[in-house]
Amino acid sequence: PHPRPCIISILSMIYLIAALIGIYLLFYGRFLAQEWINFRHKKRLTPLIPGHEGIPFFGNLLELGKDTESGPRVILERARKARQEGKGDLLKIWVVHACTFFPVTGEMMQYILESPDEINKGKNYGFFESWLGRGLLLAGGHKWRMRRKMINPSFHYAMLIEYIDTMNRHAKNLIHVLESHCGNEFDIYPFMKRFTLDVICDTAMGKDLNSLNLPEQPYVKAISKLMYLGAKGSMHPHLWIAIIRWLTGWQREHNRHLKIAHEFTLEVIAERMDILSRGEVDAHKKAFLDMLISEKERSNLSMEDIREEVDTFMFAGHDTTSSALGWTIWCLANHPDIQQKAYEEVKEIFGDDVDRDCTKDDIARMTYLERCIKESLRLFPPVPFISRDLDNDLQMGPYLVPRDSTLMIAPYLLHRNEAIYPNPDLYDPDRFLPENIAARHPYDYIPFSSGPRNCIGQKFAMNQLKIALSLMLRSFRIKSERDFNSVAVLGEVVLKSKDGINVIIESR
């Protein structure tokens, strides 16, 4: 072939590539320049903060391993090693261009938890935004403050009392379902997940989902898949690139389940609005959704705003509580002496009456059971890592933490700090006797986070945990044939066991 057309083709290709690069730089040049400025700023400040920076480009990425099992273990080991070297109050991890800081003492944690300005959640939560929108969990700044103020009354003491009957009813259904599994080892976690889903669906939306008996419903499967896909996306860097999400099928699967979840929520909202307009709602059985609907005109809420908050509570209100419930069962199953003491407290309150509902007074009397729950939340905090993106440089004691980096509120690391909790891997509810609590810094224990962005539903969750566990203890002995420390922990958005919570229950 004549060389001239070949040269023209090559030049055309070069011009096309140059044009594409030019267009890319036109649209993203300012962003890339700002990223480079922020990167240099971080590189200038981070050498002053303890912790090695890994290898060029990758940072500490290769040390963290490939999965959510190895990551938490490696970070915990690094935190303990840093303490042995006398540098144990702030840990840094570099992953490519991003730097994350882990405060591992209550004193250091106080700087971020009490900051009135640094309240924006980390970018890794972005994989849940298409489902949850910018509701209370993901909103920042002014919108978060307005929503928090609006929603606070729904978790007032008087409202929490109204939810107790609903919790009792679903806890009894849980016991009924579990009875068929007596005598054999089984994974109890899926049942805890469906129980807490039924409770939050009933209290948040006024909808009796009954997933304990009907686990194959499209909505039940859809939100389970959205939880899984969101966690997978946030933990795997290759999925941070949109085209790869489409090529791997992640995006198509996500969109399919998202459509089911959103349609269900909007349908329930429409049904509830119709019921409220006809005045057919029991005044003593109001749902969280009812408050949002009543605020619709006053706070200028759209249907999408209401959906965001309902979906947020479905997300935040069931997976975290089921994690807490599952891990507490695991702790009690592996410590029969502690389980017996908790049972004796419950028996003193209820006598031999297995069926009596819990009242608010009963819940207040379960002081030892509460200590058992708190100790399991120390060892296995439902949300092990909570990220905040810094908009400004933040002075944390002697360290200046650079803007555009991530501060990780990490209960999983903090709660296993041997300088705070001697023999930290031991399960000991007496750590939460009043005199022992008083000896610690207020932020040495933060299973529900703390400060302005603490968990709004923590009292709701504790009531639910006490009701379910007290009924389980009245009904069953819980045993384990596995070693307590053999469980493989997955540090995902919600802390889970790799192989489930495998126990044996026996009727009392």
CATH homology superfamily name of the domain at 124-382 and 423-507: Cytochrome P450
The overall strand count is 11
- Secondary-structure content class: alpha+beta
- Give the CATH architecture of the domain at 124-382 and 423-507: Orthogonal Bundle
Tell me the major beta sheet. 4 strands, mixed
Mean pLDDT across the residues is 88
Helical residue percent band: 40-55%
Assembly state of the chains shown:
single chain
CATH fold name of the domain at 124-382 and 423-507: Cytochrome p450
Sequence of secondary-structure elements? HHEEHHHHHEHHHHHHHHHEEEEHHHEEEE
How much of the residues is beta strand, in percent?
5-15%
- Low-pLDDT stretches: none
The dominant shape is globular
Number of helices: 19
> Which class of the domain at 124-382 and 423-507 in CATH terms?
Mainly Alpha
Enumerate the strands of the largest sheet in spatial order, edge to edge or round the barrel: 1-2-7-4
From the alpha-carbon coordinates, what is the Rg to the nearest angstrom? Answer: 25 Å
Distance between the termini: 90 Å
InterPro entries: Cyt_P450, Cyt_P450_CS, Cyt_P450_E_grp-I, Cyt_P450_sf, Cytochrome_P450_Monoox
Protein name: Cytochrome P450
Keywords: Heme, Iron, Membrane, Metal-binding, Monooxygenase, Oxidoreductase, Transmembrane, Transmembrane helix
Organism: Pristionchus mayeri
Strand and helix layout:
Blueprint: H1 3-45, H2 70-84, E1 90-95, E2 98-103, H3 106-113, H4 129-132, H5 141-151, H6 157-162, H7 164-178, E3 186-187, H8 189-205, H9 218-235, H10 242-247, H11 250-277, H12 288-298, H13 303-333, H14 336-350, H15 360-365, H16 367-379, E4 386-389, E5 394-396, E6 399-401, E7 406-409, H17 411-414, H18 434-438, H19 458-475, E8 476-479, E9 489-491, E10 495-497, E11 502-507
Parallel strand pairs: 2-7
Antiparallel strand pairs: 1-2, 3-11, 4-7, 5-6, 8-11, 9-10
Helix pairs in contact: 7-8, 7-19, 8-13, 9-11, 11-13, 12-13, 13-16, 13-19, 14-16
